[in-house]
Amino acid sequence: MKRLKTVISYQLLVISLFLLAVGSLFAQNGPADQNLTGKAGTFAITNARIVTVSGATIPNGTVVIQNGKITAVGSNARIPGGAERIDGKGLSVYPGMIDAGTNMGLLEIGNAVIGTVDVAETGNINPNAKAILGINPHMSHINVTRVNGITMAHSMPRGGIVSGQSAIINLNGSTQDEMAVVPQFGLVVNFPQISTFAGFSFLTGPRFIDFNQAIKRRDNRVKDLKDAFKKAKRYADVKVAYEKDKSLPKPKTDLKMEAMIPYVNGEKPIVFSAQRARDIRGVIKFANEMKVKAIIYGGAYAHEVTDELKKNNISVIYNRVHNNPNREDDPYDLFFEAPSMLQKAGVKFCISTGDNGANARELPYQAGLASSYGLSPEEALKSVTLYPAQILGVDKMVGSIDVGKMANIVVTDGDILEVRTNIKHMFISGRKIPLTSRHTKFFEAFKDRKLGGK
Questions:
Q1: pLDDT, tens digit, for every residue of 179-193?
Q2: Which residue has the higher pLDDT, 2 or 193?
Q3: What's the pLDDT tens digit per position in 114-166?
Q4: CATH second-level architecture of 97-398?
Q5: What is the pTM of this model?
C-alpha cells in the first residue's frame, strides 16, 4: 500500500510538471499574443489618401481619432493638442473590412482538439444557443485575420436546423463583452434542402435515395421548422395576453421559445443558409408565410433568382467566390462573376469568406478577384466594408470613414484588395492595434534561417 501511494504521488508530480510546462508554453505562444489589445488615445493620421467609401476619396487629408470615434475627416481637419501624429505620406486610409459570415472565435482546430470547438449544439432546434457565449477571444484566428485589414466579423453557430443566435464582434478584446458589437444579431437557420445523398459506408461507399423521397424528406423538415415557428408565435401571444390580463394562467417559461420571440415577430433578422436557386425560393416562400425578416447566407446561385430577391427586399451574404461551381455545365468562373451579377441586378449583397476563421484573412482577395470579373473596384471595396455593415444593420457605426462612426480604420501602402499590399497601421474602436499574430511571430523567427545551418 505504501509503495502504491508512492507511485501515485510520483505520477501526480509528473502530471503536474507536464501541465505546468504546457501552461508555460501556451502562455508564451498563445494568449499572450491575443491579449495585445492595443492602446487608446487621440490620434491624427495626416498627409494620407483617404478612401471614405461613402463619398469622394480625399487625395491628401487627415483623419482624427478621439475617444474611440472618428472626430474629423478632411484636407483641413483640426488636430487636437496632444494627439499622436501618424505621417500618412504615400499611404491610404480605409474603413476596416467586415466578414459577414464566419464562425470566428467558435472553432480553431476542428476535430483534432475538441476543446477549441464550440460551434454547434446537439439537437435540431437550438434558438437559445448564443454564439457570443462560445467565442474565445484568444483564438489565433483573430489576430491572423485582423492584421490583414479585417476589423469586424459576423460569427454564426451551425448545426441542426435552427443553429442559434449569431453575434457581430470587433476583432479585438480580452473578453466576449469587450468584443461584442451586437451580442445577438440574427437567428441562424440551415434551411432544409433537397439532397439524394443518404450517407457513406466504408464497405459500400456512398448511398443515395430516390429524388421523390428526397423531396418528401425536405418537405418534412420544412414542416418541422414551420411548426417550431408557429409554436413560438403562440408562446409570444400567450405572454402578451398574460401581461394584459394577470388573471390568466401564467405561462411556463420555455427558453427555446423565449429566444425565438423577436425573430418570429419580425423584430430581428433570420439568417437562412441556402445555396441553390430552388432552396432560396423556398426561403422566400417560408419568410413570406411566416412574416419574418430574411437574409440569405451562401447564395451560390442567388444570381438566378434576383427578381424574387429584389421584390422581397432580401439581402445576400455571398460566400462562394473561392469555390468551384457545383454543376458540370457551369463555367469555371461562375462564382467569380456572381457578385457582379447580383450588383447589376440591384440585389443587396456583400462578399464573405464563409470560413471558420483560419482563412477569413482572404476576404480582401476574394473581393479583389470579384473585381476582375465584372464588379467595379469601387463596388468590390463596398462589398467588404459598407455593404456588409448595411446588411448587418451597423452602417451607422462602421463601414465608411465618416465623422461620428466607430474608429475601425486601416492604413495601407497600397490598394487594400491587392495581395501585395501591406497593412501599416490599424485601429479598432479607436485603439491602435499591434500588427502581430502567430504568423508574424513565426515569420520573424524563421526569416533569417539559413539552409544547412550555415
A1: 999 999 999 999 998
A2: 193
A3: 778 788 888 899 999 999 999 999 999 999 999 999 999 999 999 899 999 99
A4: Alpha-Beta Barrel (3.20)
A5: 0.89
Give residue limits of the domains in the chain.
Answer: 35-96+400-454, 97-398
Determine what percent of the chain is predicted with pLDDT higher than 70.
91
Nearest to 441 by CA among 30, 161, 61: 30
Nearest CA-CA partner of 116 in 124, 104, 127: 104
Q: Answer whether 446's CB lies under 8 Å from 183's CB.
A: no
CATH superfamily, domain at 35-96+400-454: Urease, subunit C, domain 1 (2.30.40.10)
Joined grid coordinates for residue 438? 502567430
